[in-house]
Amino acid sequence: PHPPANHHFIARKERKEEQPHVSTMLRLSLFAAVLAVASAFQTPPTRLPIRLASRPSTRVPFNTRLFIKPPSEFYEEKSYGLVGTVLRQGPVPLVNRITNGAEYDVSVYNFMKEKGCSKIEAQANIDAFLANAQDYAYQALEDKKTGRKTDYVNMNMDPKQVTLTLTWAAGIIGLFARVGDVAATGET
User: Fold this and answer.
1) Where is mean pLDDT largest: 8-12, 126-130, 167-171?
2) pLDDT of 131-151, one tens digit each?
3) What is the distance of C-alpha 166 from the center of its chain?
4) What would the DSSP string read from start to end of 90-152?
5) pLDDT tens-digit readout, 35-66
6) Per-residue pLDDT for 91 more than 80?
7) Neighbour-count burial for 27-44, b at 16+ CB within 10 Å, e otherwise
8) CB neighbours of 117 closer than 8 A, spacing ≥ 6?
9) HSE (CB half, 13 Å, CA atoms) of 72?
């Protein structure tokens, strides 16, 4: 009972067939690591501040997670998309906006009604709140003290800043992709 002469070839062939599964697992692990690094220094996301209408007939308890939808005109008003959210405030409000889209819209609508501002300004404020609620609250107090108003709409939208952000993001993503590829294939 000696192993066949080509047992090394068979063992290598079996390892190569298993490699795509291992490679996929490594890539998924790398993707999870990139997401963790992207949000490592940010405050955990908080629930959106939903305020319901003041009429008693429209009040709904918060624990039911029901809310009143904004009118159809709200969706027709000019706004910015997901790219605008990630460029202005980063990945945390983006993920929150994607996963809690309806609550996000209600919060933007209520902010517009309460402050009497445009939809873009309301979006920028809600995104800033979702990125870091404590900093947003602190900035609001500072704005009251000094009498000025923080411009969240144009925050981080300077062309030089956008270019720098995109360059760094491409470099970091490329670096992690290369490390994952080397780890998956075993290259040196």
Assistant:
1) 126-130
2) 999 999 999 999 999 999 999
3) 15
4) -HHHHHHHHHTHHHHHHHHHHHHHHHT--HHHHHHHHHHHHH-HHHHHHHHHHHHHH------
5) 666 655 555 544 555 454 444 333 333 333 44
6) yes
7) eeebeeeeeeebeeebee
8) 111, 125
9) 0
Element (H, E) at 9: helix 7-38
| Neighbouring residues of 187: CB distance < 8 A, sequence distance ≥ 6 | 181
CA–CA gap between residue 83 and residue 67 (Å, rounded): 26
Separation between Cα atoms, residue 140 and residue 145, nearest integer Å: 9
Record the pTM.
0.58
